[in-house]
């Protein structure tokens, strides 16, 4: 469904950088139109402007397995959760003119040492629209995972990443049991479960063409 409101129905009155570090925080003063037709009062909001990202579910149809990566995530260090997070391959869109798909292809090599045979976009969504401008783009990549796994990451980005290959069914059940690390991983695994048969046919059709 498309909202009846658009860019003409809000006005940015002022915008400034409140903090600039690993994350950028903007302070925005604005007003927007109300559903009953009038304009609302001026409001102040802070927006996290770290940037958008792309991620990818890595799947091997021949073995019905997926490749996930585990790494340290500082924001998840709480009493009940480990700060080491098991998730799908992902990376920031932080290079000029780099598309989400190009990010996925780069991150597959950097985080898991993989070059896919097939890549398809799943969906995009706002990560946390109440306070962040970040958008997540999710893809699926078909790869031969027979020899996959190991330690990867870029030293200059302080990355220490463990790539692991696990059965699709077991990791999907873990995700449904509230053991998944983030929304993108859960969305990607759910999509894969619903589209597994189609991915299988795409995979084998490509091999048949090569014979």
Gyration radius over CA: 20 Å
Do you know the CATH architecture of the largest domain?
Alpha-Beta Complex
The dominant shape is: globular
Look at the helices and sheets and give the structural class.
Answer: alpha+beta
Overall domain count? 2
Report the average pLDDT across residues. 91
How many helices?
3
> What is the strand content?
35-45%
Q: What does this molecule look like?
A:
With 211 residues, this protein is α+β, with helices and mostly antiparallel strands. It folds into two domains: 8-48, no CATH class; 53-210, Nucleoside Triphosphate Pyrophosphohydrolase. The chain is built from three helices and eleven strands; from the N terminus they run βββββββαββββαα. The strands form two sheets. Strands 4, 5, 6, 7, 8, 9, 10 and 11 form an eight-stranded mixed sheet that branches. It has a three-stranded antiparallel sheet with strand order 1-2-3, with no helix packed on it. The longest helix is centred in the C-terminal third of the chain and has 28 residues, at 183-210. The radius of gyration is 20 Å and the shape is globular. The termini are far apart. The model has no long low-confidence stretch (mean pLDDT 91).
